Amino acid sequence: MESKYVLNARALRAKGYNCAQAVACAFIDEVPVDEKTLFAIMEGFGGGMGGKDATCGAVSGAVAIASLLSSKGDVASGTKAATYALASSMVSSFLGQNQSLVCKTLLGKENGVVLRDCELCIEDAVRLAESVLNLK
Question: How many separate domains does the chain show?
């Protein structure tokens, strides 16, 4: 059975959320911001950063959740290293699983070889965030 986060992400994607929004907003009950704010923050990360087919939006959404859950919101708290470690773990795992972090490469836009479609990238990013952040 799929987790509530994967189910949330699928439902959000079906409503038209981009990859970054679907991943981040799937965790809305876990983070200290409202969905409208998180949706707005993540909007520019879709389509591989503003539609430029660069870094996968699903990965960006997962990193955003790690940041929101790890950071204490100020330099003096000293959480940067821990937040970077969480983000690095998710990014490395996604890369190892899918062979790329780049939207156009994942979608096969240059060579016609699809490594992973958006829906599966979203699910992968959600599962990685769940695992790394111990959210089940």
Answer: 1
